[in-house]
Amino acid sequence: MKCLICNSENIETIDTIVSDFVMARIAPTNKTNYKTKLCFCNQCSFAFYEYRLNKDEEKKLYYHYRDEDYQKLREQFEYGYTKEINNLLNTDTFALAEQKRVIKKLINDNGIKNIEIALDYGGNEGRSFFDELGSKAKYVFDISGARTVDGVINISSCEDIKKHCYNFIMCNMLFEHLSDPVSIIKQLNKFGNKDTVYYIEVPSENPFIKGNKSLLKKKAELINNPIYNILRLYKYVLTLIYRYVRKPNFDFYKMAKYFFKTRKQPLMPMTEHINFFTIESMKQMIELNGYEVIDIQENPEKGVLGTTLVLSALFKKKSS
Ligand SMILES: [Zn+2]
């Protein structure tokens, strides 16, 4: 097996499965979960699942993302993923404001000005724009089928993307979901010119610390460690309490059943995030595919489910 980013064969793996929810979305008639491996590249510190969704499965998982059917199905497998939580995630204005703050920070820190035409690749309804970002035109390309908000123009085909000349092309919270991240970063190259500034934002959530080779094995041992399980239960109950402060319909029996079910599963079944980036692996992905890095930062962002760390990269085409 090779690293998806740097092609290194220096990979450590741990056995796991595709999660019940993802299985139900991509292959509803299959009774058994696909087996997969969680992989860690010792060369560039990129982590990923060996199982890659094909185009058809990717579409099944993301088409009408977080709509009513999505929520109902996910709640069957994930206790606590209620309609309310789904709505909060869909309309999390606080998280959106935080995302805009971080984009502005990267733009300002690097003196990027006059962003007249901007494209949000995979931008759903186009809610990540702010006034200065695409002051003349704001475009969104997305496969989810969502309707764009006022002032944002929807582009539905790759051919149509090429019809415009962009000062700024961004991809927010997309690369952690992509089956083939390298093909997409290569494709983005065709949509920009030598002055286009690119921006990628992903969660900074690599489950393996860079350079710590034994961490994977330690994690595997933790699954059978009673102290870790007590901590996990404690963390889980805290999360649930946090979730149910908003709507107290707490069902202890269902919660306990869900907990013991997840307890029996292997480490980190594959959910929607199939790629985990670090600063180093992000840098490698950018530089190995025809671009040069302007800046990469890690910043905290607040949202309905708490504060998360995000990785933001600003880059442009390599000058020849
Ligand atoms: Zn690698």
General description of the model:
With 320 residues, the protein is α/β, with parallel strands linked by helices. The chain folds into two domains: 11-91 and 225-274, no CATH class; 93-206 and 276-317, 3-Layer(aba) Sandwich (Rossmann fold), CATH 3.40.50. The chain has eleven helices and eleven strands. The protein has helices spanning 20-26, 55-62, 68-77, 83-90, 93-109, 158-161, 181-191, 215-223, 226-244, 252-264, 279-287, and strands at 11-17, 35-41, 47-49, 117-121, 137-141, 153-155, 168-172, 197-203, 275-276, 291-303, 306-317. The strands form two sheets. Strands 6-5-4-7-8-11-10 form a seven-stranded mixed beta sheet, with helices on both faces. A four-stranded antiparallel beta sheet has the order 1-2-3-9, covered by helices on one side. A hairpin with a 2-residue loop joins strand 10 (291-303) and strand 11 (306-317). Helix 1 packs across helix 3 (68-77). It is globular, with a radius of gyration of 20 Å. It starts with 10 loop residues before the first strand and ends with a strand. Bound molecules: zinc ion. Zinc ion (ZN) binds at residues 3, 5-6, 8, 41, 43-44, 46.
